[in-house]
Protein 1
Amino acid sequence: MTTTTGTPRTDRLPLLVLGQGRDLASERGVECPGDLPAPSDPGLVERARAAKAALGDRLFVLGHHYQRDEVIEFADVTGDSFKLAKEAAARPDAEFVVFCGVHFMAESADILTADTQTVVLPDLAAGCSMADMAAIDQVEECWDELVEAGVADVTVPVTYMNSSAAIKAFTGRHGGTICTSSNAETALTWALEQAGDGGKVLFLPDQHLGRNTYARDLGRPLEDCVVWDPHRPMGGLTPEQLRDATMILWRGHCSVHGRFSVEAVEAARREIPDVKVIVHPECRHEVVGLADEVGSTEKIIRTIAAAPAGTAWAVGTELNLVRRLAAQFPEQRIAFLEKNVCYCSTMNRIDLPHLVWALESLVDGRVVNPIRVDPEVAHHARVALDRMLALPGETSKD
Ligand code: SF4
């Protein structure tokens, strides 16, 4: 990795640094400092139940759809990132919100909950590789370069929920909004209106969601999109390319959804009679273009739940969710779209030993792994989140 002057960067190692403390190149920590119970302990389920019962109404457990079954079993509510953040905000009486998900989600929950509530992430190493693809100093550098190119004053940032609180705060400070995978079309329409004629959107950090929303959902030309590479001077773009573009897509992607391929869609259509392909909009544009249905995890669940018995699905989203859908809807024929895609490794960091450790610590009066966003950052991030909540037609479906 290099700076714009070509100097190698040592503070943005692409690898997970092992050891105590924090990985400064990442939005997450690097390890769990506690004495975890052994994964083989046969009493773990009972221990989790007992700790949860002991904490009673003081505790609220949130479980993201991509979490393991062993963790989802203890969730008071399941959902995707924004739904869970809103669920947390709707429980002002819960003293502790244990977030079984990844770091950026716990940050959003902390921003949206009261100061008297504590959000706990059972394993600090549960980050998100997509969120890590946009570091705040890179985003600030990008904005400075947009200023230099004379386009910053007509550019509105739109930032996907899957980003650090610092980048949400950047978005709030620059008049932009947050979006989720279910309201990206509304958010982008709003931002394009704000930007005005000849204006632009800087879409962070998932290039695929940005491109799919602009070209597929809004039906606008792909040629209006350019990709900003944070590792190259001026994003690897010329001033003319920047001036001509409407969508400046940050070069980030989901390590799971980015792997679903055109070949996998073609194989599913060849091998599964009458199959319907349903994928998440974090998938690549070519894959989304071939799918029958595209939507957030909440939409995927709703669509499959509403389909007639016997419908065959090839599903392109995280494997924990697809396996659960197959178990929940045995009357449907559900296949995982791509044989070479694994679970999301960071989502899977939250396992039963970490959950038991976090809950039993709370019972003992120790708060472990609290997620506390800096108040200044939280204030500006909240501005961007509130702009999203005020978008026309915003619902609680994501
Ligand atoms: S599935 Fe993708 S976007 Fe979601 S937490 Fe994992 S890496 Fe991040």
Note: Residues 1-11 have pLDDT under 50 and may be disordered.
Protein 2
Amino acid sequence: MKHLSVSLVCLIVLSALVFPHAAEARVPQHGMTVQTHQHDGSSQGRYSKEREEMIERTQPSGKIMDAMGIKPGMVVAEIGAGGGRFAVRLAERVGDAGKVYANDIDPDALEFMKKRCREEKIQNMIVVEGGETDPRLPLAALDVVALVHTLHMVKKPVPLLKNIIATLKPGGVLAVIDADPEKFARMNRDAEGLPSNEQVMRLLNDAGFELVSEHTFLPLHFFWILRPREEADQAANPRE
Ligand SMILES: C[S@@+](CC[C@H](N)C(=O)[O-])C[C@H]1O[C@@H](n2cnc3c(N)ncnc32)[C@H](O)[C@@H]1O
């Protein structure tokens, strides 16, 4: 019996390591999917270093930033930055000459990121309280806007995506990383309620984006780089 309990505990610990998002439940809402986190209820539990390290194994931030073309001096934003896991890596990469806008709509996430900036002395990260469809970011100012594991949680994705176009500099891009239900299923993870990649691409097209490139190295997520189609860019940023 004792042997059985020890095996059970080992199995649970092993699953948590192999499947870092296993404690996340997905509930369909407004055509997209909402993700809830089962944690100890505190921002600390949700945004712990251990959790960040586990996510880093399936979403290596250095390789992701290389693929996004993030360089020192750039002005970039992450919409739905949560506890700042990826945004702080962006801040390191763009350096003192660059800037990162870390947006979220969750007051706990915003508070956590502000505290993190103070404690980790991050001076080039600006925490922004977004609206549901208005990211409240500077207009025509951003080289890259990243949506990392966030789009499936957004209740009104098309209006938000349309508003992102106006924040991009000419030549700026949107990088979207999100759960790929086929990859989830292949890894025996619950993909119920996740939108298909085709559904997500349709939303992006409806909002005025077109695909520039696709990166396939993430084991559980799709990773697309997109730019505004010319007519959508013109509508959002009328330039003479
Ligand atoms: C799963 S977390 C991802 C956090 C972070 N991007 C990461 O990968 O570690 C998704 C975040 O998106 C935020 N979110 C949901 N809808 C949003 C919206 N309309 N605008 C900004 N943030 C949003 C949630 O509050 C949550 O913090």
Note: The chain has ten helices and nine strands.
